[in-house]
């Protein structure tokens, strides 16, 4: 069996080498002639999988994307060709939530904001939006969810008991964090969900965070708004037209990064693991490996908190594991010379909160670190 996989999939060799011959490829450069003898194709979001790519691959039976987003896959075409398709829902949702939390912590320090006074509007309450909501709950930070699709399912009797709010109400919150897929057509289209009019409605003291897909915010309209002196604070991980970023927008952002919100080692590697599981299921063979077989220990793998848990301690432990300013600096300094894709391919190691076990001395007892995702030290 010939397995072609994106070179940017951690542990792909470890997971898949016993299942067939492995052929790594560079995601942006893959061409139809490269995969003529592929049985399995494993991609990331930068490879457009459609008829043009697959038309010369008669043996292909399995396509997987080690990502949450699936907007780069022509699923209708795969169905027509009886090629099975698997994505990795939720694989990097924790990573995205930790990115947003790190950004909030950094902005809270930069502008002396008390996080507990804020209301966060979360647009899209799926995997990433939900993980963020859980972390905000742990911190007692108020949030409002908008998700008309889940709201409609609730009305039809789903088990979801969360409260949903109209989009315009959620867009009026102190912080807006967007977590929708890229949807080009239909009632719930998200391309330019934040169009010129909605951007004009923003208040100068708001914070707007986007770590979903660049096309959800009209980047040119956002640039015009900022050029007119609007105060809205921007945290942008994703950009319209990646890898070609509207560079004039970067100086107007508080935090700008190269679509790496989901790039924790765990988040990316879970994508590899989920495709391994899917392929084993398809081949009807037992899974021999799991992610924990390969994940190394974090550089700092245990800490003790000795004072009462407050925003200062929160800032310290969040930034100890992941300080988003590192990725912001890399983006600003290296985008022109290295390019967007190289920054992503050479992304330095980043771990999730769970890689650190936290001990709390008796006077510091709090369940917040654990609820945020840190591992409880076992006695
Ligand atoms: N920056 C990154 O590194 C990164 C990482 C992971 C995911 N993503 C992107 O974020 C998107 C969301 O990820 P997820 O795991 O939460 O996906 P998900 O599918 O679990 O959840 C998306 C939610 O958005 C809702 N939704 C769809 N259209 C909407 C609309 N018009 N208004 C409000 N809600 C709407 C859906 O009902 C769903 O509940 C992915 O599709 C992907 O494109 C980016
Ligand atoms: O959709 C996703 O899962 C994320 O956007 C993911 O981080 C994309 O990473 P890429 O496939 O572009 O490396």
Automatic annotation (TrEMBL):
Entry's Gene Ontology BP terms: 'de novo' pyridoxal 5'-phosphate biosynthetic process; pyridoxine biosynthetic process
Ranges where the Erythronate-4-phosphate dehydrogenase dimerisation domain occurs: 294-373
Signal peptide limits: none
InterPro entries noted in UniProt: D-isomer_DH_NAD-bd, Erythronate-4-P_DHase, Erythronate-4-P_DHase_dimer, NAD(P)-bd_dom_sf, PdxB_dimer_sf
Functional summary from the UniProt entry: Catalyzes the oxidation of erythronate-4-phosphate to 3-hydroxy-2-oxo-4-phosphonooxybutanoate.
Top-level taxon of origin: Bacteria
Active site (record annotation): 213, 242, 259 (proton donor)
Enzyme Commission numbers on file: 1.1.1.290
Keyword Nucleus: no
Gene Ontology terms: cellular component: cytosol
Reaction(s) this enzyme catalyzes, per UniProt: 4-phospho-D-erythronate + NAD(+) = (R)-3-hydroxy-2-oxo-4-phosphooxybutanoate + NADH + H(+)
Keyword Cytoplasm: yes
Entry keywords, A to Z: Cytoplasm, NAD, Oxidoreductase, Pyridoxine biosynthesis
Native species: Litorilituus lipolyticus
Annotated positions binding NAD(+): 147, 237, 262
Name under which the protein is recorded: Erythronate-4-phosphate dehydrogenase
Quaternary organization: Homodimer.
Domain D-isomer specific 2-hydroxyacid dehydrogenase NAD-binding: 113-260
Stated family: Belongs to the D-isomer specific 2-hydroxyacid dehydrogenase family. PdxB subfamily.
Gene that specifies this protein: pdxB
HAMAP family per the UniProt record, alphabetical: PdxB
Any one GO molecular-function label of the UniProt entry: NAD binding
The protein's annotated pathway: Cofactor biosynthesis; pyridoxine 5'-phosphate biosynthesis; pyridoxine 5'-phosphate from D-erythrose 4-phosphate: step 2/5
UniProt-annotated location(s): Cytoplasm
Residues that, per the record, bind substrate: 45, 67, 263
CDD domains in the cross-refs: ErythrP_dh
């Amino acid at each position: 069996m010939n397995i072609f996989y994106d070179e940017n999939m951690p542990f792909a060799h470890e997971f898949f080498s016993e299942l067939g011959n492995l052929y790594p490829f560079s995601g942006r450069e893959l061409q139809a002639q490269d995969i003529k003898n592929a049985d399995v194709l494993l991609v990331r979001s930068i490879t457009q999988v459609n008829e043009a790519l697959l038309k010369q691959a008669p043996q292909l039976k399995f396509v997987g994307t080690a990502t949450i987003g699936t907007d780069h896959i022509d699923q209708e075409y795969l169905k027509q060709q009886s090629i099975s398709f698997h994505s990795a829902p939720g694989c990097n949702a924790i990573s995205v939530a930790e990115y947003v939390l790190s950004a909030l912590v950094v902005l809270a320090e930069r502008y002396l904001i008390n996080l507990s006074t804020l209301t966060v509007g979360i647009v899209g309450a799926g995997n990433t939006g939900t993980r963020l909501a859980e972390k905000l709950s742990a911190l007692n930070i108020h949030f409002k969810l908008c998700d008309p699709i889940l709201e409609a399912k609730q009305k039809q009797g789903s088990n979801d008991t969360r409260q949903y709010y109209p989009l315009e109400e959620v867009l009026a919150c102190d912080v807006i964090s967007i977590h929708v897929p890229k949807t080009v057509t239909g009632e719930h289209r998200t391309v330019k969900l934040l169009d010129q009019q909605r951007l004009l409605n923003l208040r100068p003291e708001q914070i707007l965070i986007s770590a979903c897909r660049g096309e959800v915010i009209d980047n040119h309209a956002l640039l015009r708004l900022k050029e007119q002196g609007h105060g809205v604070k921007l945290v942008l991980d994703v950009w319209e037209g990646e890898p070609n970023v509207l560079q004039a927008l970067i100086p107007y952002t508080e935090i700008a990064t190269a679509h790496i919100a989901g790039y924790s080692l765990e988040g990316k590697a879970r994508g590899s693991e989920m495709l391994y599981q899917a392929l084993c299921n398809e081949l009807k063979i037992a899974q021999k490996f799991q992610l924990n077989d390969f994940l190394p220990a974090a550089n700092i793998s245990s800490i003790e908190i000795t004072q009462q848990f407050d925003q200062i301690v929160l800032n310290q432990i969040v930034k100890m594991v992941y300080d988003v300013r590192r990725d912001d600096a890399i983006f600003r300094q290296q985008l022109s010379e290295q390019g967007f894709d190289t920054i992503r391919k050479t992304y330095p190691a980043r771990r999730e909160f769970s890689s650190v076990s936290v001990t709390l001395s008796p006077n510091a007892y709090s369940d917040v670190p654990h609820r945020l995702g840190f591992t409880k030290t076992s006695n």
